[in-house]
Amino acid sequence: MSLLIDNCGELVTCDPRRGDGPLGLRTDAAVVVADTEIVWVGHSGDAPAADRYLDAGGGAVLPGFVDSHAHLVFAGDRAAEFAARMAGQRYTGGGIRTTVEATRAADDDALRAHTARLVGEALRQGTTTIEIKSGYGLTVADERRSLRVAAGFTDEVTFLGAHVVPAGADADAYTALVCGEMMDAARAYAAWVDVFCDRGAFDADQSRAVLTAGRAAGLGLRVHANQLGPGPGVQLAVDLGAASADHCTHLSDADVDALAGSATVATLLPGAEFSTRSPYPDGRRLWDAGVTVALATDCNPGSSFTSSMPFCVALAVREMGLTPAEAVWSATAGGARALRRDDVGVIRPGARADLVVLDAPSHLHLAYRPGVPLIRDVIRAGEPT
Ligand code: NIG
Ligand code: FE
């Protein structure tokens, strides 16, 4: 089955070789999809015939968003903790243990249904690729269950047994469990391993042990780095060749230099700064230093309970100094880089047919009209959703 998408107000290819600027913008363009793939991109008048037709109505057409950082397998919420923060309380990550208790207590069906609800919410807002982490189980059985649930929704499953040390456990003994028995259980479902390398979570040695064990188990590496304060996370991520260092809220000059000279993506999570009242990292400085930047939601019940990539784009423009074009690139092609994928986050022949049609003529509107439901159509792997 083929599909022609025409009458695009603007085509955002996210491939600078295919158009203007970092977004590779084109006008008077059309796209043809066959089965799950994009097969043709070109001038509207030259488009080949297709079985079906989608009129973009003059709306901008973008690659589906790639949300490369989300914690969707959990139960309960922490709205009261959010309210307390807005009244002045600091975020410390201590509330993670509250969600661990609620998650352990939920049955499989409830956990799956809750995850499905959030994945659906993200899809309706244009997210066609999503990474999902475990990290609210923190026993071998509970982490295995979270990873199994995540694997029902995405191939980009991340083992985050090293989220925090569970209540009452010894940090080194727990790290050894994560590196041993838990890693063995995780490798059946996970593609990635992640560690929260920060104050109150895991130190540099413990984080290095987790990442090294993950690599030995065949997993790619990701790091929660420098969220709560300056620390070793970013440079550890770069040292070990991690795909991504996430948060990057508190960066030294040496951290920026390390990222700039590396293949490690800096994944910025503006929903977390929004929801914790932390200062935002300087995305402008990272971009200008030549760092590859991704934007993601960090969707989780504690520090960032949003599944909306358009909201993150708007925040990154308003608060992190990225231009709308840079923010949209970071939310699509940047996210794909953070997952080491070249088949998503881009509109080119051979890429997966993941496309979003906006109810607006240009990508600028994603930042210009924050909070407005601008996602008109979402096509995932060639299928209108
Ligand atoms: O990425 N920083 C660690 N983990 C999450 C927060 C988890 C929570 O508060 O429940 C994050 O912000
Ligand atoms: Fe996170």
Main β sheet profile: 7 strands, parallel
Structural class: alpha/beta
Spatial order of strands in the largest sheet: 10-11-12-13-14-15-16
Whole-angstrom Rg: 20 Å
Mean pLDDT: 97
Proportion of helical residues? 25-40%
User: How many individual helices?
Assistant: 13
Distance between the termini: 15 Å
**Outline:** globular
Unreliable stretches: none
How many strand elements? 19
> How much of the sequence is in beta strands?
15-25%
Compounds present? N-(iminomethyl)-L-glutamic acid, fe (iii) ion
Structure explained in plain terms:
This protein has 385 residues and is an alpha/beta fold. The chain has 13 helices and 19 strands. The chain has helices spanning 79-86, 96-105, 108-124, 140-151, 171-186, 204-216, 233-239, 253-260, 270-276, 283-288, 309-320, 324-338, 365-368, and strands at residues 2-6, 10-12, 25-26, 29-34, 37-43, 52-55, 60-63, 65-67, 127-130, 132-133, 157-162, 192-197, 220-225, 244-247, 265-268, 293-295, 355-358, 375-380, 383-384. Strand 18 and strand 19 (383-384) form a beta hairpin. The radius of gyration is 20 Å and the shape is globular. Fe (iii) ion binds next to loops. It is an enzyme of class 3 (hydrolase).
